[in-house]
Amino acid sequence: MTLEAAQHPEAQPGDDPLAGVKIVDCDAHWTEPADLWSAQAPESMQDKIPTQKTVGGLTAWYLNGEVWASTGGNTITQDRQKVLGAHMLHPFSKIDTSAYAVHERLGIMDDMGIYAQILYPNGIGFASNHLFAIQDPGQRQAILTMYNDHLVHVQDSSQQRLFPQAVLPIWDMDLTIKEMTRLLDRGIRGFTLSDKPELLGLPELPESYFEPMWDLFNESGAVANFHIGAGQRREDMEALRRSTSRESGRTPTDPAPGTPPVVAAPTWRSFGPQRRLAVHAAQMYMSNVRIVVNLCNSNLFDRFPKLKIVSAESGIGWVPFILEAMEFQFDEMVTHPDERQFAQRRPREYFRDHLYVMFWFEEIGASKLIEDIGVGNVLVETDLPHPTCLYPGPKEHFSRVMGGLPQAAQQRILQDNAAELYKIPLG
Q1: How far apart, in whole angstroms, are the C-alpha atoms of residue 305 and residue 350?
Q2: Which InterPro entries does this UniProt record tie to the protein (predicted)?
Q3: At 12, which CATH number?
């Protein structure tokens, strides 16, 4: 849809341009509550599940006697203040309960002017890679199932306003299909996936191994979500957590003292933890360029024509350039008949019909680039409760940065695209 197609009568001075619009936040995070697993596991499994502990003032998840995962990005305190310059609040008791309790989350959403949220994991990573790192297959599967059961409970108790995206046991395709089917039957709308399963020793996403999963996505209408950082291994995520927190530590690409690096780290070693986080975050937004460009140059959408894919927390400012670059490189480089016939359509066409991107803090992208991307391909987010979340005033921000767009275009971006994509009842 173009801006011209979204025209409407001019608003009168003083009108609220977003009056009546139910904003759908398409990327917020659900912090794992302290009793997520202990409240569900039978007595016989209590020593085999993740347990939250605070040691030396730092709270983390422990499994099999070792630190397994962080508590995730949390910057909203119990008195609803956002702490700048922090990634994770410690101990866990400092975090506002809206991070992990349904009633309180709905309350803070009401205060922010948000109607519904699409939820992603927090401390355990943005796909199932942390879970895959658990060595025992039975323990791994039980922990994943309990996690997804918790997400179903969150959705069921949220008055149709919270929609968690579940994680999948992609290391076993039979289990993946079984878990997808189980959760779809219970109302889950989508799933969050690793964009680099090959880093875990699995095939790449377009290979035959993943065909049953893509077929179920295609037929069910469930959304496949790729959140930035979802392809990182557990050890990568934990190293980043250490290097940007009060703990000392290096990223996996940092060399040991006195040895040259094999691969350059994302940040310079001389930076402190806050600057490391800022530099890493600015680069991470564009990490989904890889999955977007590969998808748009593949034949995956020919094979699964109803597939819908979301690039979460990746912003939109880079998208017009990538669309233009894909088209240019396609014409310049894809000349052999076999290569031309590999996929039926051009990259921009695949993007238009199958992909969604989202923004939150951006101003230039929101005010000047929407038409180049496509009104029907853009969503919004708040990233609550992460460090750069739009708290406390996302509605005012969206109204300001999108003020030059027709009201119908604003409604489509803030409400209708997400409601249609995730099948959200608007009442």
Answers
A1: 10
A2: ACMSD, Amidohydro-rel, Metal_Hydrolase
A3: 3.20.20.140
